[in-house]
Amino acid sequence: MLWNLLALRQIGQRTISTASRRHFKNKVPEKQKLFQEDDEIPLYLKGGVADALLYRATMILTVGGTAYAIYELAVASFPKKQE
Question: What is the pTM of this model?
Fold first, then answer.
């Protein structure tokens, strides 16, 4: 139990820093050039293949969910007859 308290004390004494330990290359200027080009590609697809896949998956889920909701509403509006 004493070790747990000492460990907790050490955690509390650590300084909190938002500075990154790793230094990455700044890619913002490259991305700005990419997204500001006028090449007739929609903004939501300029990120490449990953953006295209995410867009298609979103559209499939949206259309499928809407169709399923309409189907369930149609089923609920025509209740089964009791015999």
Answer: 0.58
